[in-house]
Write a structure and sequence with these properties.
0% strand, Four Helix Bundle (Hemerythrin (Met), subunit A), 195 residues, mainly alpha
C-alpha cells in the first residue's frame, strides 16, 4: 500500500515537472524542472526494482547531459520574444504528437493489464547483468551508433558556444614572443615629493 502511494506521488511530481519544462518562460528554469523530472523518474525506476537504470539516469542525464544543456542555454543569448513568436503556429502539430504519445502510453498500459502475463524470473535474477548482456551482444551496433550521435551532439554544442565576441579579450602569443627586452620594462624618472 505504501509503495503504491509513493508511486502515484512520484508520478504526479513527474507529470507536473514535465509540464513545467515546456511551460516555463525562462529556459534555465525549464532545464531545472527537467532535472527534477529525471530525479523523479529515477525514483520510479527504483520502485520498479531497476536500480541500474535509476543510477544511469541520474549519472548520465542529470550529471552530464543536463549540465551541458544548462551550459548551452546560459552561453547562448536566447531572445525569448523571438522564440515565443512561433508558439501558436506549432500548437496543432504539438497537439497531434501529444495525442499520439498518450495513445501509445494507454496502449502499453492496457496491454499490461489485459494482455499476457509478465514473465516470472528465477531467484537470483539480476536485471543489471541481463541488461549488460543484451546491450553488448544483441544491441552492440545500436549502442555504438547512439554513442556516435551523442559525440556529434557534444561537438555541436561546443561549436555553438565558440562564437567570436567583440567584447572578449585574448592573448596573441606571437606578438608576445616578438617583443624586445627594451619594450617590456620602461624606467621612469620622477622627482621626489617634498612635504
Amino acid at each position: 500500500m505504501f509503495e503504491t502511494i509513493v508511486f502515484y506521488a512520484f508520478g504526479a511530481v513527474l507529470l507536473l515537472s514535465g509540464l513545467r519544462v515546456i511551460t516555463a518562460r525562462n529556459p534555465v528554469h525549464g532545464a531545472l524542472f527537467l532535472v527534477l523530472a529525471f530525479f523523479t523518474a529515477a525514483g520510479l525506476w527504483l520502485l520498479l526494482r531497476a536500480e541500474f537504470l535509476a543510477i544511469a539516469l541520474v549519472v548520465v542525464y542529470v550529471g552530464a547531459v543536463m549540465v551541458l544543456f544548462l551550459f548551452v542555454v546560459m552561453m547562448l543569448d536566447i531572445n525569448l520574444e523571438r522564440v515565443r513568436e512561433g508558439f501558436w503556429g506549432n500548437l496543432p502539430l504539438a497537439l497531434v504528437v501529444g495525442i499520439i504519445m498518450v495513445w501509445e502510453m494507454v496502449t502499453v498500459l492496457a496491454y499490461r493489464y489485459w494482455g499476457t502475463q509478465p514473465r516470472q524470473f528465477p531467484a537470483g535474477y539480476s536485471n543489471t547483468k541481463e541488461l549488460g548482456r543484451q546491450l553488448y551482444t544483441d544491441y552492440a551496433f545500436a549502442f555504438e551508433v547512439a554513442a556516435v550521435i551523442l559525440l556529434v551532439a557534444i561537438i555541436a554544442a561546443i561549436a555553438l558556444t565558440l562564437r567570436r565576441r567583440k567584447d572578449s579579450r585574448s592573448q596573441d602569443a606571437s606578438q608576445q614572443i616578438r617583443t624586445k627586452a627594451s619594450e617590456r620594462v620602461r624606467l621612469v624618472s620622477m622627482p621626489a615629493e617634498k612635504e
